[in-house]
Amino acid sequence: MPSNSDFNVLFIGDIIGRQGRLAVSRVLSGLKAEHSIDFVVANCENAAGGFGLTVKLADELTELGVDVMTSGNHIWDRREVVPHLDSMTNVLRPLNYPKGVPGRGWGIYETGDGLKVCVINLLGRVFMRAIDCPFRIVDDLLKEINPMVTIVDIHAEATSEKIAMGWYLDGRASAVVGSHTHVQTADERVLPGGTAYITDAGMTGPFDSVIGVDKRAIIDRFLTGIPNRFDSATGDVRFSGVVISIDRNSRKAKSIERIHCPVTSESE
Question: In the chain, how many domains are there?
Fold first, then answer.
């Protein structure tokens, strides 16, 4: 049982399309009760049909109980959301985009009992588009803010880059959680300095797929090399994420637990 000093965070792995949103609607309230969750972070850059996020869907996920939505390189896929990013205080785009880009890369959020939580969104550079260094920019930010419970989403392709970020922020962040690759890893641990870490929190959405996309389209792309339409899959819906227990006083992580569960489909 959690103690009174525990602050429990649920990080939801990349939400994929309508099926991912369905999973959140079916599972989130029960998980919050079961694990005494105080704060929910979810990567939502694929929530709109598998690519991007809309204002309407951000509002929907907020109503379902998501406190902060992180993202990544696909946050720009739905152009209609871009003009609203500056005013969407609980939606983050990666911090290491250049200055002047719409939106915010981090935020401080106050819980009902007055605890302040900093959430930071970073984008990796290995095998991805060139962008500012996530290591240097998060270093600069952490020097400016007072120590507090800090959750970092490192949205990156390369496992090595994510692990390096975990070690780099060990003792300075309460948790470093990887996203983007949509496959939950089994390397969850609390690092020596008190930072909870996992390379990828996984995917919330259809597992009868290739990382959330209709498997036939992906296989055809590999077989032919010809670009084709990628649609979100629909079968075998599952919810993935991690529960992180953090000491309110020390801001150090005490434990990290993987969550991976099937979700009843609408037809059942």
Answer: 1
Average pLDDT estimate for 205-219: 90
pTM, entire model: 0.94
Model confidence at 2: pLDDT above 80: no
Task: Give whole-number Cα distances, 84 to 56, 113, 118, 141, in Å.
Answer: 11, 29, 21, 24
Transcribe 136-189 into DSSP letters: HHHHHHHHHS---EEEEEEE-S-HHHHHHHHHHTBTTBSEEEEESS-S--S--E
pLDDT in tens, 93-130: 999 999 999 999 999 999 988 999 999 999 999 999 88
Per the domain annotation, does 198 fall within a domain? Answer: yes
What residue numbers bound the domain in which 22 lies?
A: 6-262
* Gyration radius of the chain over CA positions: 17
- For the stretch 56-65, pLDDT in tens is 999 999 999 9
Q: Which residue type does 170 have?
A: D
Q: Is 260 known to be catalytic?
A: no
Q: Which of 35, 74, 84, 182 is catalytic?
A: 74
- For residue 249, the SS3 value is coil
Tokens at 129, concatenated: 């588009």
The answer to whether residue 105 is domain-embedded is yes
Residue 126 falls within a domain, yes or no? yes
Please report, for the domain that includes residue 107, its CATH number.
3.60.21.10
Instruction: Tell me the C-alpha distance between 52 and 38, whole Å.
Output: 27
Residue 1 lies in a domain: no
